[in-house]
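Q: I'm a student working through a structural biology exercise. My instructor gave each of us a protein and asked us to get a predicted structure, then write a short paragraph describing it. Mine is 4-diphosphocytidyl-2-C-methyl-D-erythritol kinase. I'm not confident about reading structure output yet, so if you can add a plain explanation after the tokens, that would really help. Here is the sequence I was given:
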Amino acid sequence: MELTVRAPAKINLHLGVGAPREDGYHPLVTVYQAVGLYDDVTARQASDWALGVSVPDWMDAAAVPTSGDNIVDRVADLLAAHHGIERTGEVHIAKAIPVAGGMAGGSADAAAALVALDRLWAVRTPDDDLLALAAQLGSDVPFALLGGTALGTGRGELVEPVDDRGTWWWVVVPADVGLSTPEVYRHFDRMFPDAPSEPVPADALLQAIAEGDAWALADALHNDLEAAAIDLRPELGALIEAGEEAGALRGLVSGSGPTCVFLCGSADHARSLAGDLASTGHPVVLAANGPVAGAHLVSYA
Ligand code: C5P
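A: Happy to help. First, here is the predicted structure for 4-diphosphocytidyl-2-C-methyl-D-erythritol kinase. I'll explain a few features afterward.
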């Protein structure tokens, strides 16, 4: 048996971050959107465990954790222990989501692997158990299972679907070198020692989604980690300005960065902005729409 599960990247349309909790995590009020950039996890039956990764030419292969250190190894351990079985399988991750980019690429791999191994091992884990295992693997993993547009609270792991009838178009500009999420959070703590314990609520953003208006959404986009990411990588500020000057409705750092995303008014607008940004020295510029589905089976044989 061989099967492939696909899981999407995320953008945080709203990322309200509060002062760190006792466990070191930051309380969040976030609105996630899954966008059409995907990693694929393929799993086939085998007598022991093997994991491989492939990346597109433009991605730094050395930046991807290899077998043994990859989050997918932890997925296999956790799901196998949950069912009291051995982990087995030959698993391959085909990456397209920027690594350490603020788009939850590792979380997408974890969500895809959970769904793939659940099916490969025929263990039929109930959805609530899958979500609980996902939350143990990382704050963004439950959202990568769910997809669509969702409100995230807690440390981001408590997810609730948001009714989103829109089709939103984004231009995505990854950076050559990733940023470490913990490092960006630490920098946020240094820059904002008086951050409130309650994160900024997402009401304005949710209202804009309900209206379905791209200009209203542009106005409401909010990311409390943006200042920290730009302080660590000042070139991101210049990129956002360049994208807005080139006609984006709004540019924003994605999550903890360094990927920047630009909201566009239509598919044509996104294609043309992507072409403009590519011609100004950004080797990789992608266009993607959201919301799209969470981790889902795409082939089975
Ligand atoms: O949950 P996850 O493993 O993805 O988080 C990675 C790191 O990001 C954490 O170890 C923590 O440093 C930081 N983080 C945080 N607050 C959150 C989510 C992540 O401080 N809500």
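A: Here are two points you could use in your paragraph. The radius of gyration is 19 Å. The first helix runs from residue 71 to 83. It's a good idea to check both against the output above yourself.
Q: Great, thank you!
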